[in-house]
Every structure is written in C-alpha cells, then in structure tokens.
Amino acid sequence: MSSWNSRVLMASTCVMLVVFLPLLAADEVVDVAVAAPATDVSAEPVPADDSILSLMLDTGLTGLLFMGALGLFSLVSATVAIERLVNTRRSCIVPADLVNELKRVVDSDRSTPADLQAICDRHNAPVATILTAGVQRAGRSLPEVEKAMEDAAVREMGALRSRVRPLAVAGSVAPLIGLLGTVVGMIIAFKTASQAGLGKGEMLAQGIYMALVTTAAGLSIAIPSLLCAAFFNGKIEQFFRDIDVALMSTFPCFARVEKRVASASRAPEEDDKGGARTQDRLVDVS
Question: Are 11 and 18 in contact (CB under 8 A)?
C-alpha cells in the first residue's frame, strides 16, 4: 500500500509541475515577444518541416512537458498491449492438450477425481485452476461443486481483466491530459494577447498550436488503447465461455462420486438399524 501511495504522490507531483510550470513561464514568453525586434516582412519564408518530431519540438517547453507525459502513457499502453497479446493466447488460457485429455478421461466410465487432478497438475492455466476447485469438493453435492468452480472462474477472470485495466486507464486519462494541454495553451495564448497586444499574432498562434497538438496527441493514444482493451476483454470472455463448455462435461464424473459417497454413508446406517432390530427381537424373545 505504501508503494502505491508513493507512486500516486509522484504522479500527482508530475501533473502539478506540468500544469504550473507553463503558467510561470508565460510571463517570460510575453517579455521576449515584446522586446523582440521587428522582423523583415519581405524576407523569404523558410519552408516548414511537417514531420512529427518537428511538430513536437515547435510546441516549446510547455508542449514538451505535456508530450512527455503523453509519451509515458503511450509507452505503458504499448507495453501492456504486447504483454497481453502474448499471454492471452488460447494455449495459455484453454490449452488444447488439456481439453483433449479431459475429454478422454470424461468419456471413460471409470474416471475419478484423481484422474482430473492429474490433468490439472500437468498444466498451468486458468482452466486447470477452475477444475481443481471442483475436484477439491468432489463427493459433495453437485450444486456445491458447481459453486466452487464458478467462484474460481470469477477470480481467474478478474485477474486477467486486471492486467488489461492499464489500457482502459490510459485511454481515459490521455484525453484529459490532452485537454489540460489545450486549456493551458489557450491561457498562454490569451495572456500573450492581453499583454503584448493582438498585433503579435505569431505568439497567439503558438499557444493555440500547442493546444491543438496536445489534444491530438491525447486522442491518438486514447483511441488505440481503448480498442486494445475492448479486444482483449472480448477474447477473455470468449475463452471463459469455452472453459464453461469444456468443464460441463466433468459433471457426470462428480455425480458418480457423489453417489458412491452417499451409498457408502448409508451402509453403516442400515447396519446400525439392522442390529437394532435384531436386539429388539432378542429382547422380545427373552
């Protein structure tokens, strides 16, 4: 918990610096704009560089602060997306070997929970964890076994979705950072206009330029992040539907175990009742 609080504090500090440093630097920008000598209007214009790097650099220090924060979000989103793309494959969630072995064991009328547990021990996957929860309650009523497997499935699905959640967070926060950059850029632009006059159109345009670039950058990060989050959540739901179909076939095995346990528990009771009836007859004869 302390490490999480320290990360939150560090993130809050970075956001505060991103917000207030541009506002503190706005006066210096205006002073430089006022003191700058008039340029020759007749000079030949320099061709603009439209590359992405030049667009980022042209936003100045203020824009670079916001672009750095957005770049961090894009790096986290790309890392999480690649990691989830590798670890949410079918072979990691519902291995085909486990499903085939389970089908062979279930088709046999002599299958036991020990056979199912042996299959689970050979595989490290969510489907094996869910089946293990049912095997541990073998011999009890089927509703209890089913409830144990449902609880295990909810836990496994929650664990998988928690690893996709950073994509949803990045998709929600990145546009807000872009919007914050837009607001700060407009503040700088109008502050420049109020102090340097509307004749300094290039300084006014620079603030608006930074506002638009940060907004575009935030949306460029948010849209792929949200699409990836929806894609991985859809895959997880599909895999758990397949797990449900695969594990439904194991219920006859648990039903046979339940019957054997029930018949074994009834046998001593019948013996006790038979002994009690014999004793009653002996008492009547005497």
Answer: no
Which of these, 120, 119, 116, lies nearest to 138 by C-alpha position? 116
In the predicted model, what is the mean pLDDT of residues 170-192?
Answer: 85
Give CA separation, 45 vs 17, 159, 162, 219, 284, in Å.
36, 58, 53, 32, 125
Q: CA–CA distance from 139 to each of 43, 115, 124, 152, 238 (Å)?
A: 91, 14, 24, 18, 30
Instruction: Please check whether residue 164 is in contact with residue 236, taking contact to mean a CB–CB distance below 8 angstroms.
Output: yes
The answer to whether residue 131 scores a pLDDT higher than 50 is yes
Quote the pLDDT of residue 219.
Answer: 92
Indicate the pTM of the whole model: 0.69
In sign, the C-alpha dihedral spanning 145, 146, 150, 153 is: positive
Q: Domain residues of the chain, as ranges?
A: 56-272
Residue 35 has a pLDDT of 42
